Amino acid sequence: MNADLKRIRTAAESAVLESFADVEDTLPGNAATHADRRTRMALFEREGLPHRRIEQWKYTDLRTMVREIAPLADKAGPADVPAPLLDGAHQIVVVDGFLTSGSADLPAGVTLAPLMDTLDAGTTSLAGADTPDRAIDALNAAFARDGYALAVEKDVKMDTPLELVFMRSGAATMSHARAHIALDEGADVTIIERHVSPDGQASQSSAVTNYTVGEGASLSVLRTQDEGDEAVHLGEITLDLAAKSQTKLLHLVAGAKLARSETRAVFAGEEARFDVAGITMVADRQHSDTTLYVDHLVPHCDSTETFKAVIDDAAKAVFQGKIVVAQDAQKVDAQMAINSLLLSETADMVAKPELEIFADDVSCAHGATCGDIDEDLMFYLLARGIAPNEARKLLLQAFLSEGAEAFEGHPFEQLAFDAIETWLAGHAAR
Amino acid sequence: MLQIKNLHARIAEDGTEILRGVDLSIPKGEVHAIMGPNGSGKSTLSYVIAGKEDYEVTEGEILLDGENILEMDPHERANAGLFLAFQYPIEIPGVATMTFLRTALNAKRKADGLDELSTPDFLRVVKEKAAELNISSEMLKRPLNVGFSGGEKKRNEILQMALLEPKMGILDETDSGLDIDALKVVADGVNALRGPDRGFLVITHYQRLLDHIVPDYVHVLSGGKIIKSGDKQLALELEAKGYADIVADAA
Prior knowledge:
- The structure holds two protein chains of two kinds.
- By secondary structure, chain A is an alpha/beta fold.
- Chain A contains eight helices and 19 strands.
- The longest helix of chain A has 17 residues.
- The radius of gyration of chain A is 21 Å and the shape is globular.
- Helix content of chain B is 40%, strand content 28%.
């Protein structure tokens, strides 16, 4: 191969570049913001859509899988906002990448600024890493039209959950939304991030949410990805975890034709804790990638990573989990488990757990299993007269529910059970 | 009643023949015990009756009330009135014991053409039967068999049998792993279920269980065949002399 040979762009890659050239001057932001956008786009111009030769994208080759790119949404289309998952939650709604509601009547101690405004004012930066593994963030930053910066003040313990809705209207568009959520010291907040779009609509969307969890703050996040059956979804959560903070994150993944959700947590202060769990349920020809990076930069922090996946039909699930423990980060405890069940001959699962440990006094472990429903468990239920489809459902329910173990007694637990029940009713019980 | 005629079965995976012509008939109301040395095919017999896929029946039939159950799936056999109390009851994390009991009972009721039990009715029935077996409500709240002691698991098996009211109960080494107190509770539970319409097949290694669940007949299984049958005295004889003589006589 000639290294100078110009790589041939795919139709989707060309569409992205053309779209950027067309809309760039209509995007919000001051001069510095625009410079950042162009820098982020330069990565894309150089590397194209992430593909299998980039190690972190080996199992989710967007270059091959994304064939078409719809035009960038220029306004929020009409959309029916779903009722909140938790009663009384305050909804902040982004439709087609535009903040449409939630700015008014904010709960006490919460402030919100539309991203459009903060970009124009230059108070939010779109700068970021210039490496191909960060393609989601780069693409999102280049195109982001709106979103918000949300802050929870010091020591505010919120009774009302916040529900951050990221949805698509009826039109097939590309859209990119970005939110910054900052919890000041001692704040305590429950957040549901909800990513939804209608079935039958070939939309491409990205959503990046950057959380800063202040010293001693507590954050619980439920992220549900329930995109439509033709949707392409790229998501990223970043978490900056200060000393003595406690963060719990639960991913419920059932939607989209093609999805990748990245979680990047960095321990920045000592004695912090991060529990992340995920429940992935995919069927048909869905492709769902959950990628996790946990960076233990400092000592005396704990993390647990628990992922469960059920894969049916010709679907494919990918789980990549990398835990890095820096040389100074002694006394860290990190435990990662990935368990998956394949329900058909054509279902596919890739589990890639990685530990990179430079410290010498830590407790880290990872384990991955992949298999079919245990025949002995099945036989026990059958021998009690329970019909095969019912027995299967019970076992899948049991298997997946364990993914929510870290949330026992928390309202997220019931939401997880409901999501499992809904999925099983539509899939595995047939 | 349960009739087993010239039953031959092998391990599906490697074709090893385990049962080589078992003939056995258990009329309603009777308790039959099967004893035999290790590897004689006792547990295989129970699994083949219950319909475990690991085994392949190559010859013979099994009739429950005249109906050939070999053509039925395991859950259909259970709903036709067959109950296997497992030697090693399976732990199922994430499935609450109560959910399991309720699902099983409702499956049986559905098969019998009955409506599902209402929640209060179900709870009343379970609590009543659980109390007789010293099963606490705390135990019922736990995931199925998870963290149960050997005795608790076996009592849970008997509770299931009491709820499902089978025509034929098969107890596969129910005494294994039990101390004498637990054994007595389990035996009392089984004895309470004895009646003119229900038969039992009690598979055991030791005579001890048969002091508590007194059988009408005792059969010796060896090399995949029943080589000797008799009354409960046969069990005592086996206990005293071991299997070697009987096996040698039959050979």
